[in-house]
Recover the amino acids of this structure.
């Protein structure tokens, strides 16, 4: 990832998202581009337009945290966007590599104790890495994501499934929302580890094969994947409305565990019970975890 180009694209895209009305500015005069002008961002951030223009050209090396925070306030960045801007500045300073722990290869066997932990969870549970490879799951998680496991190319990947597998349009009833979230997760991962060759290869593949992905990647949206609700349509048990909690694993910070739960006594809770019965009787079509 070219740091200056990434900074330029990110700041430009954030500026385009903020309207003068949202910033409390007058709207007089015709505007050739959406969002705020550079002069307006500079005024809101308390700096000269020449200095802000330099930042938007990608020159973040040596920029103080106070200046970054002023830009973040002017552009109304959320927590995920602020963190992304900070990572870009650290990369520009050459400190990003020092702050990142040495990472193991992304595709690897899961520790047996981690698989035991997953197997002890009674709800669907999975482990992914930052580039959204599906590395491990418990029995109910593998049953829930059985469509994703049909990819015989290697380690299942949610990016390839979402944009290249027609089954994803049925599995995600709100496909556009799921696609937006997936790309935002990948864009965030690119900021965390910009030297991840596997992620570069994945983005290149998806950009070449999917116009939907390429358009979303160019939007430069990022997000913090923590908690929320998701809806699915499973080909055996039907609709699932699930809450999820995602957490980084302290022993391996590039891995994220997600556990899905249903509201007690709901139709989704009943569907999960059916899914568990189906999984127990159909283990031959649900791949076993890699040991």
């Amino acid at each position: 990832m070219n740091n200056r180009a990434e900074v330029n694209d990110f700041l430009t895209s954030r500026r385009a998202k903020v309207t003068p009305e949202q910033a409390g500015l007058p709207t007089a005069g015709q505007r050739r581009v959406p969002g705020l002008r550079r002069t307006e961002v500079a005024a809101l951030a308390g700096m000269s337009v020449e200095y802000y223009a330099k930042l938007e050209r990608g020159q973040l090396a040596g920029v103080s945290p106070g200046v970054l925070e002023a830009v973040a306030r002017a552009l109304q960045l959320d927590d995920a966007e602020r963190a992304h801007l900070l990572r870009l500045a650290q990369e520009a300073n050459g400190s990003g590599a020092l702050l990142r722990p040495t990472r193991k290869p992304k595709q690897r066997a899961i520790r047996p104790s981690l698989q035991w932990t997953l197997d002890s969870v009674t709800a669907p549970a999975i482990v992914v890495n930052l580039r959204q490879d599906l590395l491990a799951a418990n029995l109910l998680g593998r049953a829930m994501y059985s469509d994703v496991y049909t990819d015989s190319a290697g380690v299942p990947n949610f990016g390839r499934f979402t944009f290249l597998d027609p089954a994803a349009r049925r599995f995600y009833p709100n496909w556009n929302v799921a696609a937006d979230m997936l790309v935002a997760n990948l864009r965030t991962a690119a900021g965390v580890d910009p030297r991840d060759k596997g992620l570069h290869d994945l983005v290149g593949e998806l950009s070449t094969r999917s116009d939907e992905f390429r358009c979303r990647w160019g939007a430069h949206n990022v997000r913090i994947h923590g908690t929320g609700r998701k809806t699915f349509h499973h080909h055996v048990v039907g609709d699932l409305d699930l809450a999820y909690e995602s957490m980084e694993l302290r022993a391996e910070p590039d891995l994220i565990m997600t556990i899905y739960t249903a509201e007690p006594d709901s139709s989704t809770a009943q569907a999960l019970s059916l899914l568990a019965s189906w999984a127990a009787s159909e283990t031959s079509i649900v791949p076993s975890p890699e040991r």
